[in-house]
Amino acid sequence: MKKAPDILRIEEIQKEDIPSVGGKGASLGEMFSIGLPVPKAFVVTAQAFRRFLVETGIEDRLFATMADLNVEDSAALDEASRKAKELVLSVGVPTSLQKRIREAYRAMGSEMIVAVRSSATAEDLPDASFAGQQETYLNIRGEKDLLEATRHCWASLYGGRAIYYRAKQGFDDRTVNIAVVVQQLIPSEKAGVMFTSHPVTGEPLTIIEGSWGLGEAVVSGTVSPDKYVFDQRAGKVVDRLIAQKVQMIIPDGRKGTRLAEVPGPQQASPLLSDEEVVKLGMFGKIAEQHYGIPQDVEWAIVGPEFFILQSRPITTIKAGATSPAASALQGGEGALLVEGQGASPGIGSGRVAIVHNIKDVGTVKEGDILVAKMTNPDMVPAMRKVAAIVTDEGGMTCHAAIVSRELGTPAVVGTKKATAVLRPGQIVTVDGEKGHVYEGAREVAGAGKKEAMVAPVAAAPLITATAVKVNVSLPEAAARAAATGADGVGLLRIEHLILGLNKTPGWYVKQNRQEEFIRELHDGIKIVLDAFPGKPVWVRTLDAPTDEFRNMQGGEEEPHEHNPMLGWRGIRRDLASPDQFRLQVEAFKRLWKEGYSNLGLMFPMVSHPDEFLKAKQMMKGWGVDVDTATIGIMIEIPSCAILIEDFVKAGIRFASFGTNDLVQYTLAIDRNNENVASMYNPRQPAVLKLIHDAIQVCREYGVESSICGQAGSDPAMAEWLVEHGIESLSANIDAVAKIRDRVARTEQRMILDAARRTHA
Ligand code: PEP
Ligand code: MG
Fold it and tell me: Catalytic residue numbers?
């Protein structure tokens, strides 16, 4: 290895220093040299790391921990990683090296607060796409903590994921080094990332995402950021999506960072002015022109000062790329292992954790790929922490698909054989757009980001006559849902809220703990209502088939049904179990009393107007003013569509097509059965006829017609529905923007067509 100093200051770094300072360090030096506003920094070089290994005498022992390691054996990989990291952390930094680090640190200023970042590098391939595999330590102050953070960065070179990547990319661990970038921590008021050109098409559109506090909140996907699009050709801001920025990451006292709540009024206020967007766009352009290719840039702003923290090439732009997910993959060419339906867009890589039953849920770790026959509500806690979800069974409307989309977690469903083909501990990459699962880990553009968590791009300025609402199941998704700019919630599925408690409603009744149940329900719904002030939120009463309750406490009381889809669910169950229906109504009553007049109720699985009338009667008996309350139904059973006029006469205030069920009950296609998934067609003429006829009746009587089934997230279906007079649509979080766009275009076309006809 070339002789080089232990420390290089940012102003000393040149392009040729990549092997010493890594891609990150070299890029900082280069940005400094072209005059971009980068914070003060120095790099503890790769040579310093090697010297540390030699002078402490741990080198041979360290590499022995990884000799003959089968990286596919996850237990062995974990053990090797643990031993290697322990060894690195067991020795101190040699005195002479310590002295140089301390000196460089002092030269930055007294007790400067810094970010300490790893910058991996290899001798023969200087910047071997190791981004995101090593640690960053933020808010480090003082020489002692700096030395400690440096050692931790070094140790991170031996994380399990990093060892695995290297083995798969054919690198000898001995040739891979690590440099440590010590950079002034900018106590940013706002920060984020920017793609200097469109990351998929390469068009000169700079996409800027940002949020309050440190940029890590955006990079890690903790928040839904604001999004701004700056057209470099026109020199102006052409789109902005202002998100509800609920949380931020801020320095935590003397060390580390913490999550904090963004003060109320700041949450929904725009992060950047147009001038700031333009200025960031200009810095991005300078970086892009210098490097000759579009860049993925991290930026920060404090007061009037702008900083560029990092810049690296976007490697996803390909000629003719068609979908973000398709082009977001980079790196190795792992074999296609299984295929299914892409149920929730995004890319996730990680270690396979197979969940056969609830007992296995404990083995699922942060960042794993959860693989199951089908997910259950009791798996939701595990689903929250995984990088992607893969199931054998199910279609676009199954539990796994619905929950994944809400969590913003990539998912592939209906693979038929994932639990048989994939092996526990195996590293795979899931493409939730294409429905593919590949062998090995592949990097995603803007490494470290959980792609799908980025707030969907809303065409915010579009105003449509047809309301475009959003579906919500988990209260934690409420902020992301609101950030889409949706006109309300067209379906809040409360069973997800209840099933997460892992106890059946019957259990609460039996234990005489009704109050707990009511409070949980009340609090969960309130979160969603608060996210949509002044906008309608249609809360659906409980609709869980008996098999979904089975694994929960109290589940042993559930009847065994031959076909739960046709069984004791929806309104029919509530009508037969007043003690459980009453608990829900109690929660609604409290919310109405607290002033949430935007709360509407929706009954699922109604087949005859008598059910609607009986439910209303029961509610009246429990003190609800049913004449003023907004109460409607879902059209999920063909009989309901056929009898819609009678429902209108019975007093429904709205009717929403639950096409997930309407399709299965009209066509006799089990919506969760992957064997007939190809025949599951919401645009089958019989389904369309039922929908068309029901819309016309609703229009005639001035009753709002809507859709909250998955078909409402399909732009082509949305177009058809608008043409046929639907009044509102409710889509998944990830689909709101594209649905609004299609609705707007359709409405414009219809207006033009009508105008042409009158002038013809
Ligand atoms: C539907 O049936 O279309 C619907 C939205 O309800 P769920 O998917 O919860 O059955
Ligand atoms: Mg349904």
Answer: 399, 708
